[in-house]
């Protein structure tokens, strides 16, 4: 067929296959292509049989099957594969056609592609898609950015397939910003996701190894939490996980190796935070926690020689109020999640200044209310915070966040203290608390660091009560003279 498809998709892996089923179910005719053409045949004769799909066995036929202006979405591996497919498409498409990269691409790559393709008259969009397999099929959160001239053409399709939230069936899809903004927001989303998953795993570890809860009890705790302010997708599926048994009646969770993988987006978030000088400490610790988990053989050896308290032994002698301590864990989890989101939105605020984007932070929060991995009930409170103050520097300063942290703080500190005393590794909980205490501390120890830098390197310092930007140098030894280094921040 020629020119019948509303949109085409390249890449029939899990996300691609489910996205096109979603599109077709909303009334769109979809052309599909995969480098391994056997996947195309299997799909159109399997899950896609009898539906409005055009299976293509060549990139040329794929392009011919699309209505103009052509809308081509890629769901393929980030990096060079995206550039390779673009180069294949360029001789076959024309000015005004639209290429959409729906994979987890690095935002700087998307920014480059927008500029390069605009010179050729092609409109490029880099969009984050969150929700996993089920979200892709039933309605994901979609975060498009890139060339704004493409938005009116792709908006009806992307908003139709996105998740909807009440009131009014609001689509969890809206234009994020120019250049690489869409993939940047998705990167931060994934960084927050890393933090959420690490925090939940730490809560589980404390309750299992310190309080001695079994899997059924853990399932029940997370199910109850999902009816509270912690209501979220990750809490919901965590409860399900603790109830799952294999064909032998054994709990699946107890059979899984404690070594977590990663695909790089969390690392990108941490690296970008370092580049901008933003203390996204919880996200960074969550990435490093996965790295540490991968050192399984080393950890097993270290456990035999490094002294310290044993959490599982402590659970046998726990004398406190178990119900109360579970509430403390809940408080610690909630407070740490608030810090995680605050750090993520602070990153986006600084990136907007750095890259000249006009990001609507309240709107971004709403994009995450449905369909995506980090969807949770308090995202609406983030929208309210930015509605009250669009120039809010840090979410922790908003009155609702202040009130929540005031309530949760005692339990948060109890959990952090118990973890340290009993040898329970909780890098995300303790990092979040340290960030909170550092952020609320008007005077930090950095004056000594600056004195040390000036002592050994003549790096100068500013004075308390002095003019901002006025630097001083002390001849600490009496031998250094008045020469000092130029002041700058790396």
From TrEMBL:
Superkingdom per UniProt: Eukaryota
InterPro entries assigned to the protein according to its UniProt record, in alphabetical order: 6-PGluconate_DH-like_C_sf, 6PGD_dom2, 6PGDH_C, 6PGDH_Gnd/GntZ, 6PGDH_NADP-bd, 6PGdom_BS, NAD(P)-bd_dom_sf, Pgluconate_DH
Origin organism lineage: Eukaryota, Amoebozoa, Evosea, Eumycetozoa, Dictyostelia
Record flagged with keyword Electron transport: no
Alphabetic keyword roster: Gluconate utilization, NADP, Oxidoreductase, Pentose shunt
Pathway(s): Carbohydrate degradation; pentose phosphate pathway; D-ribulose 5-phosphate from D-glucose 6-phosphate (oxidative stage): step 3/3
Family: Belongs to the 6-phosphogluconate dehydrogenase family.
One Pfam family cited in the UniProt record for this chain: 6PGD
Record: residues binding NADP(+): 11-16, 34-36, 76-78, 104
Residues reported in the UniProt entry to bind substrate: 104, 130-132, 189-190, 194, 263, 290, 453, 459
Protein name: 6-phosphogluconate dehydrogenase, decarboxylating
């Amino acid at each position: 067929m020629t020119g019948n498809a509303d949109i085409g998709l390249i890449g029939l892996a899990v996300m691609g296959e489910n996205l096109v089923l979603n599109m077709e179910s909303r009334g769109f005719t979809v052309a599909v292509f995969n480098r391994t053409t056997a996947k195309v045949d299997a799909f159109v004769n399997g899950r896609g049989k009898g539906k409005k799909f055009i299976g293509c066995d060549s990139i040329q036929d794929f392009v011919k099957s699309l209505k103009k202006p052509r809308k081509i979405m890629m769901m393929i591996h980030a990096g060079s594969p995206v550039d390779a497919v673009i180069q294949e498409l360029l001789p076959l498409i024309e000015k005004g056609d639209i290429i959409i990269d729906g994979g987890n691409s690095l935002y700087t790559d998307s920014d480059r592609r927008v500029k390069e393709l605009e010179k050729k008259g092609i409109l490029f969009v880099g969009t984050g898609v969150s929700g996993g397999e089920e979200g892709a099929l039933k309605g994901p959160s979609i975060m498009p950015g890139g060339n704004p001239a493409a938005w009116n053409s792709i908006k009806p399709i992307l908003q139709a397939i996105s998740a909807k939230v009440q009131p009014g069936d609001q689509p969890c899809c809206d234009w994020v910003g120019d250049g690489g903004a869409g993939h940047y927001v998705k990167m931060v989303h994934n960084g927050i996701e890393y933090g959420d998953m690490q925090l939940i795993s730490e809560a589980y570890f404390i309750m299992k190894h310190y309080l001695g809860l079994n899997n059924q009890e853990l399932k029940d705790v997370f199910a109850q939490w999902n009816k509270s302010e912690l209501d979220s997708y990750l809490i919901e599926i965590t409860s399900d996980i603790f109830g799952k048994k294999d064909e032998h009646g054994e709990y699946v969770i107890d059979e899984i190796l404690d070594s977590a993988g990663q695909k790089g987006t969390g690392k990108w978030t941490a690296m970008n935070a370092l580049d901008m000088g933003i203390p996204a400490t919880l996200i960074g610790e969550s990435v490093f926690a996965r790295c540490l988990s991968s050192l399984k053989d080393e950890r097993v050896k270290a456990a035999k020689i490094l002294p310290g308290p044993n959490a599982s032994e402590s659970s046998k002698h726990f004398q406190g109020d178990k119900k109360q301590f579970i509430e403390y864990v809940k408080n610690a989890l909630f407070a740490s999640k608030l810090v995680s989101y605050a750090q993520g939105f602070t990153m986006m605020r600084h990136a907007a200044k750095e890259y000249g984007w006009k990001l609507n932070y309240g709107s971004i929060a709403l994009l995450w209310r449905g369909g995506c991995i980090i969807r949770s009930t308090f995202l609406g409170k983030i929208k309210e915070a930015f509605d009250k103050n669009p120039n809010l520097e840090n979410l922790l300063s908003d009155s609702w966040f202040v009130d929540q942290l005031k309530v949760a703080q005692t339990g948060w500190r109890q959990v952090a203290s118990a973890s340290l005393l009993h040898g329970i590794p909780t890098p995300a909980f303790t990092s979040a608390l340290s960030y909170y205490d550092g952020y609320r501390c008007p005077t930090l120890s950095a004056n000594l660091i600056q004195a040390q830098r000036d002592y050994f390197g003549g790096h100068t310092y500013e004075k308390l009560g002095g003019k901002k930007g006025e630097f001083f140098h002390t001849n600490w030894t009496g031998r250094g003279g008045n020469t000092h280094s130029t002041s700058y921040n790396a």
